[in-house]
Design brief:
The chain is an alpha/beta fold. It has 22 helices and 14 strands. It has 3 domains: 124 residues, 3-Layer(aba) Sandwich (Rossmann fold), CATH 3.40.50.2300; 163 residues, 3-Layer(aba) Sandwich (Rossmann fold), CATH 3.40.50; 155 residues, Helicase, Ruva Protein, domain 3 (Orthogonal Bundle). The strands form 4 sheets. A 5-stranded parallel β-sheet has the order 2-1-3-4-5, with helices on both faces. About 4% of the residues have low confidence.
């Protein structure tokens, strides 16, 4: 049988080399061993393996010095660093030097085999698919969303494009309320004027008045100079008041007067300041309930609630999760100057079934985590953050949605039933694109990106496959 992969091993301990050689040979991986880094470097002038396993502490040139040299001569070669001296400095130095993975001795041989296989697959992926450089990436859209609920948001922004009208944005934390507010400002006649944002929940109550309206010199202890507030900063532009439901009652009264009169008194002032400001407010709370409880002024609520835009939670727009992840993985790669990670179908299916209580913000943070922590270019189920994998037992829909063996129809039926129970809308528009996306990505992976072969596997015409790849934003 022909060996699919070739892996080289560098360690001055003959017994370690022997153990790794035997394990890899049993799994159809050819090996070549070296007792020193210098011997390895000499061999690399004539041939290159699919992956390299190297010890850190060796006589002569050590593993970290070898790693540094190989980053210049063979930057694409996946290098697995191992050492008996497992300490923080060694791990940090290895990853900082560009190591594919770091494994402490004594190691579990199955874990070593799994890491070697992933390194080889990573190397193969690099050869077969030339990723887009960050410079080739298209400019990201302001807000991403193909789900029907997000299309309603886009339509609302479009209708308000030429308006100065007050808007109230409602949605859970992390859904992107400030992004929508910025889009409303950017597409309004005030686009060239300031956009000022203020989170009411992040400011101590005794500082809110000064923060909003400013203060005069000597207005209170510590007021050594005049300071303009957010209203004055936003003059002729837009003031975004996030978490408006947390505004204290006395400040609600002052805000109501500003909305009515377009003027205010800064703290310690005797003459009013005239302003022309568009207000966009946002909250994750139910303001109607706060009004009923006497915690929010009814007249202020009606002043703010001229036009309301509801931002759906992420679990109500699951069809957007793959394109959002693709976007955030691209951004994270650009920020960290690394390659763009690729989400595998089983991981994508699992992530789409999670509830995402932190919404888009949680998804974005997950993508940053994966860009840093996932060892290979491909993101598999095992690469996901432990706290997300821990949900596997408690969230049956997520577990069953990736169980695509002989019971895939039951799994799909269960997922749909769960969505119906949660009262989700437009389920077909969620499930069908997601299913097609998984089908196409799986076929492309199997055919190593050859579209004609993938189209034949799926029963599509070449043009149909090309159109669907574009529509579903598949790379």
């Amino acid at each position: 049988m022909t060996n699919k992969y070739h892996v080289w091993i560098t360690d001055d301990d003959k017994s370690i080399r022997w153990v790794i050689e035997k394990t890899l040979a049993k799994n159809n991986i050819a090996t070549r061993s070296f007792a020193s880094a210098n011997a390895l470097l000499k061999a690399l002038k004539e041939d290159t393996p699919d992956a390299l396993v190297s010890d850190i502490r060796m006589d002569g040139m050590d593993g970290l010095e070898l790693l540094e040299k190989l980053q210049h001569s063979h930057p694409k070669l996946p290098i697995i660093i191992m050492t008996a001296h497992s300490d923080l400095d060694s791990a940090v130095s290895a990853f900082h030097g560009g190591a594919f993975e770091y494994i402490p001795k004594p190691f579990d041989i199955e874990e070593m085999l799994a890491i070697v296989m992933r390194a080889c697959l990573h190397n193969e992926q690099q050869k077969n698919n030339k990723p887009k450089t960050n410079k080739e990436l298209p400019a990201p859209p302001e807000i991403i969303g193909e789900a029907p609920a997000m299309q309603e948001v886009f339509r609302a922004i479009g209708r308000l494009a030429r308006s100065h009208i007050t808007v109230l944005i409602n949605g859970q934390s992390g859904t992107g309320k400030e992004l929508v507010a910025k889009a409303l400002h950017r597409h309004s006649p005030r686009t060239k004027e300031p956009f000022i944002a203020l989170n009411m929940a992040a400011i101590p109550k005794d500082l809110m008045e000064s923060e909003l309206f400013g203060h005069e010199k000597g207005a209170f202890t510590g007021a050594n100079s005049r300071r303009i507030g957010r209203f004055e900063q936003a003059n002729n532009g837009t003031l975004f008041l996030d978490e408006i439901g947390d505004m204290p009652a006395e400040l609600q009264t002052r805000l109501l007067r500003v909305l009515a009169d377009n003027e205010f008194y800064s703290v310690g002032a005797h003459t009013p300041t005239k302003v022309n400001v568009r207000i966009i407010a946002a909250t994750h709370q139910n303001l109607e309930e706060l009004v009923e409880q006497g915690l929010f002024r009814e007249d202020l609520f009606h002043r703010l609630n001229v036009i309301r835009i509801h931002i759906p939670p992420l679990h109500d727009r699951t069809q957007d999760i793959p394109i959002l992840m693709q976007h955030f993985l691209s951004l994270a790669a650009k920020e960290l100057s690394t390659e763009i990670k690729i989400l595998m179908p089983e991981a994508e299916s699992y992530l789409c079934a999670l509830p995402w209580p932190g919404n888009v913000r949680q998804l974005e943070n997950t993508c940053r985590w994966l860009t840093v922590m996932a060892t290979g270019r491909e993101i598999h189920l095992a690469d996901l953050p432990p706290e997300l994998l821990a949900k596997k037992k408690s969230i049956q829909s997520a577990e069953k949605s990736i169980n695509l063996g002989n019971n895939w129809e039951s799994s799909l039926k269960y997922t749909i039933e769960e969505k119906i129970k949660r009262g989700e809308k437009n389920i077909a528009k969620q499930i069908i694109p997601l299913t097609e996306r998984i089908l196409i990505k799986s076929a492309l992976m199997h055919t190593q990106g050859h579209r004609n072969e993938a189209a034949n596997l799926l029963g599509y015409g070449r043009n149909t496959l090309t159109r669907k790849i574009k529509e579903l934003a598949i790379e």
